[in-house]
Design a protein that fits this description.
Elements: H1 7-21, H2 24-32, H3 37-41, E1 46-51, H4 63-66, H5 78-92, E2 99-102, H6 111-114, E3 131-133, E4 139-142, H7 143-147, E5 168-170, H8 184-187, E6 195-200, E7 212-215, E8 223-227
Parallel strand pairs: 1-3
Antiparallel strand pairs: 1-8, 2-8, 3-4, 5-6, 6-7
């Protein structure tokens, strides 16, 4: 006995079978990311921040930083030396591969720009942003707004080797990311004749970055922030 199946029934059956293998979401992904590259790279944007294990006077081109890595940062001064030092410490401690910048500002280059890998001052901060964690995995800030709000979720506290630090740190940076006038002459002066503003590694309030000024002959670490 033969059973007749109307053409409309065949069409409905075909659509049902197709629906098992395809949906709008998968179709969108195939059109926008045909090789799956974006999907593979997707995930939370987590970046590392630490207190440097090596301390320095306010002259970052001085012996403390410049001699610590067999000349890898030779010839660099100011914030460029800070950035190089942070990178070398991160590499030595096997931290996630990234560019690292020192949390230090000058009148020509402040942290609103440097945290985005840019020079100059008073950069507009993007909406959202990454999550920064210290080397013990504690969340420091979720996004740019919190990082520059004056209050962190937890103190930075630990260096790249996970050793605790209760030290003050060189920053020259106000809570909003702009430079204080005390920055050891753009981090090139290690004498008592200049001042540099300091933060505190054990604080999560305003004092984490903007605690007190001190003469530039003091020997202090810096904060190092990972960028992508």
């Amino acid at each position: 006995m033969k059973v007749a199946i109307g053409s409309w029934r065949i069409h409905v059956l075909a659509v049902a079978i197709l629906a098992l293998h395809c949906n709008n979401y998968n179709l969108y992904e195939k059109l926008t990311d045909p090789d799956g590259t974006n999907a593979a790279a997707a995930g939370p944007d987590i970046r590392t921040v630490f207190v440097s294990s090596v301390a320095t006077t306010g002259d970052f081109g001085g012996t403390s930083f410049s001699s610590a890595w067999s000349g890898a940062c030779s010839g660099k001064v100011g914030w460029a030396m800070a950035d190089c030092a942070c990178k070398q410490m991160a590499v030595a401690a096997n931290l996630p591969a990234a560019t690292y910048v020192g949390w230090v500002s000058t009148s020509g280059d402040d942290m609103t720009c440097r945290i985005q890998g840019q020079p100059l001052t008073n950069c507009t901060l993007p909406f959202g942003g990454p999550t920064w964690v210290n080397t013990m995995g504690d969340t420091i800030a979720e996004g740019y707004a919190q990082l520059f709000s004056g209050t962190l979720q937890n103190p930075i506290r630990y260096d790249e080797t996970k050793a605790g630090s209760s030290s003050n740190t060189w920053t020259g940076t106000k809570t909003g990311g702009t430079a204080d006038s005390d920055h050891c002459n753009a981090w090139a002066d290690g004498t008592t004749g200049q001042n540099g503003y300091k933060g505190s590694a054990i604080h999560s309030d305003i004092n984490w970055t903007y605690a007190t000024p001190g003469t530039c002959n003091g020997i202090l670490p810096i904060y190092c922030f990972g960028l992508k």
